[in-house]
Design a protein that fits this description.
alpha+beta, Four Helix Bundle (Hemerythrin (Met), subunit A), two-stranded parallel ribbon, 6 helices
């Protein structure tokens, strides 16, 4: 017989995992890791959007925004060749960061589905789904952490030095500033490890006496704070 069990702890676990997954996606696809100074724009002027908001050149793991003479302010990914792109255009460290960030995103997305599965099943193949999900979340957090470490190692690239100044080097962005994408990555790591810890509490909450009594009474949907 199938039961659906939802507790406040399991709900927090799901939301924490979901938010972490969304933050990884934001860090992966947005170009706001390094934001260049306004002086690096064409003609020394700062282009603005129609609403008057300031636009500055920026770069991410696989996307960038820059001022182009004919196309104006343009955002997009580096090259269609991706990992085959020359290291002077797309540094090797960023290629590795892209791989680990993508791997972390896939793993974390799978754990989002697993958190929903635990509402109906507590084990699979003789193993606790909560424990397996926690291990996957820890692994996901480690891979995203590796990506966060690898990206600054590529700051010696010519692309970064043109954006931030010739003084740019690993872990020193020179005239650039850290953008929202970088902080989304950091926050996703914290939430991922927090979710892994909450999973253990979520398992015990699903096995509480109050839950068992409701199940034994014939309730197929159990929701307990």
């Amino acid at each position: 017989m199938c039961y659906v069990i939802i507790t406040s702890v399991s709900l927090v676990w799901f939301l924490c995992t979901l938010v972490a997954d969304m933050l990884v996606a934001v860090a992966l696809v947005t170009p706001k890791w390094l934001i260049g100074p306004s002086s690096n724009l064409s003609g020394g002027a700062t282009p603005t959007s129609g609403s008057g908001s300031q636009r500055q050149p920026s770069v991410g793991i696989y996307t960038r925004c820059k001022q182009m003479h004919q196309l104006g302010y343009h955002c997009g990914r580096f090259d269609l060749d991706g990992f085959a792109t020359d290291g002077s255009v797309y540094p090797l460290e960023w290629k590795l960061a892209m791989f680990f960030m993508s791997l972390g995103f896939v793993l974390l997305s799978l754990t989002v589905a697993a958190t929903l599965l635990t509402c109906c099943r507590q084990s699979a193949f003789g193993k606790s789904i909560h424990n397996m999900t926690a291990c996957a979340q820890v692994l996901s957090g480690i891979t995203v952490m590796l990506a966060m470490f690898l990206h600054p190692l590529g700051w010696r690239a010519q692309r970064v030095q043109r954006l931030c100044g010739t003084e740019a080097e690993p872990f020193y962005p020179a005239d650039c500033s850290m953008g929202i994408s970088f902080y989304c990555g950091l926050l996703s790591i914290l939430l991922t490890f927090a979710a892994a810890g909450i999973s253990l509490k979520a398992e015990s909450s699903n096995l509480r006496t109050r839950v068992r009594r409701r199940v034994e009474a014939g309730s197929k949907f159990v929701c307990i704070p």
